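User: Hi! I have a protein structure encoded as tokens and I'd like to know what sequence might fold into it. I'm fairly new to this, so please keep things simple.
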């Protein structure tokens, strides 16, 4: 869909004015893009929550007033803009965002006031947090003027040449477009980061406002006085820098447990050799590593931000993970410099919390959470330290002897060894960004004293463990057979990003001869288990002879099929032979005694395979009977 969207915006522009209906259609179609542009151009000093609401407000106000009056055709200098309605709206949104970024002189304009609509009460909304790269880019953009940010966005996000950028800036009322372009040159081009969730004001997270203040109505006067005192203290900080608590919000509660959780001196630190004699292998026996484990100021900031994240903190969490402060002093796993950030990783027995701040600067921080209750062995073998330029660095468990990078799409290729320094891996390439561009899928291979395991980065703190085999008796995917089993289906892992996935298993449950005698197709079921228990995803995939990759033909969410509780699966696909004939192919796992198809195709057969002639586009409902007489339904 993204490629189609780009093509539509860059196709030759039709002539003629832009009417209200055309502009409205463009707004509906390209709304997320326009809001992202407004968000990136608005001054960061507004705060992330207000920037989100203001970006939506400016975009919604971009429509021309009235229903019948035609609007003026926007500037289209080179014919790249394929949709005049989109070009018109983009010019309006840019103009409003630039107006909001200008210093106030006299009475403020409408765009410089807090938006009346949309309005949210009791919640703060902000985009999902990115990594150190996104944080660094956001800081560089905050140092630019509004026109320079607009030039950078038009050039990087929209992919426009400088001549078109100059023309659009002039139409938006910028006095010195050349100067804006020159200033934008000072920030390295990173178009992929501009399209990341970090800068997407349509994919949001919500956090409550000050709940304590809202509940204590009878103490409103005292709360206001405390807030004034805190603001006065913040104003007097030299140079606008951080206080001892960094980007944390002001303290609103004082009790011994809360104070102990914020004391760097009370952090749990495990001896470096504790894991060798421990009865279990989980995060509780990881030692504290990194060059900054003695930096009390950094550790205090990390603890304070965890307990009270301020408005400039980017907070993200895997689904089902609470983001509240620790109940007591957590365990320190890592504190050190990772690429362009200072990183602290903490563990409270149920969650991993990663705090990151820019190595050079005090403008905001990032706080990420992952649920890890019950993690042991393979699931407690690695954590993501940071992502930079498409590469990933991991912190591995103390029992890991060797680490390597392996492209799962090339099962016969050798793994590439990764250097380990104090448990930190050298950077390795992250997996493919999108299924449509999946030409490789790099995973982390970890080897301890007894076995090797594979883990893949799915955009969260804890990589997902890859296994193969029948549910209930799965094995590691790191041997030759496991690698060959995963190779055609690894790209489907992209569908499980940011879903709180704990492990993914691939099960080759059937092999079916094709009706035209051209070979046999492979049926594989992949199932993603989550840390929270619900949200499991089951995919049935089919690969024809000689096909490089399998195709997802059916799926189910929160179904027992293909899982340890019910190691059975049934799925079907419409397949076209080389002669142009269409067939319904269906396959069940071992133990399926018969299959029936109803609806658009009526057929039945004994055994766990079924092939029947069908019409193009036909839809069939599948059901099967197991050897013990139990009925099962097909994945859809």
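Assistant: Happy to help. Inverse folding works backwards from shape to sequence: for each of the 636 positions I chose a residue that suits the local structure. Here it is:
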């Amino acid at each position: 869909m993204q490629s189609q969207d780009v093509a539509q915006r860059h196709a030759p522009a039709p002539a003629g004015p832009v009417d209200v209906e055309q502009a409205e259609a463009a707004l509906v179609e390209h709304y997320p893009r326009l809001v992202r542009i407004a968000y990136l151009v608005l001054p960061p000093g507004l705060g992330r929550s207000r920037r989100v609401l203001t970006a939506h407000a400016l975009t919604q106000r971009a429509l021309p007033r009235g229903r019948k009056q035609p609007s003026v055709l926007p500037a289209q200098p080179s014919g790249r803009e394929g949709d005049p309605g989109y070009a018109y709206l983009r010019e309006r949104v840019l103009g409003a965002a630039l107006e909001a970024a200008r210093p106030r002189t006299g009475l403020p304009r409408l765009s410089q006031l807090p938006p009346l609509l949309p309005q949210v009460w009791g919640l703060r909304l902000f985009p999902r947090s990115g990594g150190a790269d996104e944080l660094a880019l956001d800081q560089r953009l905050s140092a630019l003027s509004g026109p320079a940010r607009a030039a950078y966005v038009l050039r990087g996000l929209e992919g426009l040449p400088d001549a078109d950028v100059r023309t659009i800036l002039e139409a938006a009322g910028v006095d010195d477009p050349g100067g804006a372009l020159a200033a934008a040159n000072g920030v390295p081009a990173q178009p992929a980061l501009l399209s990341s969730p970090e800068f997407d004001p349509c994919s949001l997270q919500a956090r409550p406002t000050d709940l304590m203040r809202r509940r204590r109505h009878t103490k409103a006067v005292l709360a206001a006085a405390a807030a004034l005192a805190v603001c006065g203290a913040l104003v007097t900080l030299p140079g606008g820098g951080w206080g001892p608590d960094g980007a944390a919000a002001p303290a609103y509660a004082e009790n011994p447990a809360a104070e102990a959780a914020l004391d760097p001196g009370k952090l749990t630190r495990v001896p470096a050799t504790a894991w060798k004699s421990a009865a279990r292998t989980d995060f509780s026996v990881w030692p504290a590593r990194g060059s900054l484990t003695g930096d009390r100021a950094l550790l205090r900031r990390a603890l304070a931000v965890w307990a009270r994240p301020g408005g400039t903190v980017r907070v993200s969490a895997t689904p089902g993970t609470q983001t509240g402060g620790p109940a007591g002093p957590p365990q320190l796993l890592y504190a050190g410099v990772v690429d362009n950030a200072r990183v602290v990783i903490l563990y409270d027995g149920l969650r991993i919390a990663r705090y990151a701040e820019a190595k050079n600067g005090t403008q905001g921080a990032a706080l990420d959470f992952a649920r890890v209750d019950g993690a042991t062995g393979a699931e407690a073998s690695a954590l993501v330290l940071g992502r930079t330029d498409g590469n990933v660095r991991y912190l591995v468990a103390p029992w890991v002897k060797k680490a390597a990078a392996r492209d799962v799409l090339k099962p016969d290729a050798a793994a590439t060894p990764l250097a380990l320094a104090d448990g930190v891996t050298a950077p390795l390439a992250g997996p493919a960004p999108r299924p449509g561009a999946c030409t490789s899928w790099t995973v982390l291979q970890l080897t301890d004293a007894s076995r090797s395991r594979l883990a893949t980065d799915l955009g969260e703190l804890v990589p997902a463990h890859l296994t193969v085999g029948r549910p209930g008796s799965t094995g590691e995917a790191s041997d030759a057979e496991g690698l060959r089993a995963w190779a055609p289906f690894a790209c489907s892992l992209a569908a499980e990003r940011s879903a709180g996935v704990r492990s993914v298993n691939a099960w080759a449950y059937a092999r079916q001869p094709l009706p035209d005698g051209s070979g046999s197709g492979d049926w594989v079921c992949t199932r993603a288990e989550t840390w929270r228990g619900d949200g499991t995803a089951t995919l049935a995939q089919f690969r024809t002879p000689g096909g490089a990759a399998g195709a997802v033909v059916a799926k189910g969410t929160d179904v027992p099929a293909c899982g340890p509780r019910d190691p059975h699966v049934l799925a079907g696909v419409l397949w076209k032979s080389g002669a142009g004939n269409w067939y319904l192919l269906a396959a069940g796992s071992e133990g399926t005694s018969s299959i029936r198809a109803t609806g658009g195709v009526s057929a039945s057969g004994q055994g766990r395979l079924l092939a029947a002639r069908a019409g193009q586009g036909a839809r069939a409902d599948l059901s099967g009977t197991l050897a013990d007489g139990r009925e099962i339904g097909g994945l859809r």
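A useful reference point when you look it over: The first strand starts at residue 123 and ends at 127. Feel free to ask if any position seems puzzling.
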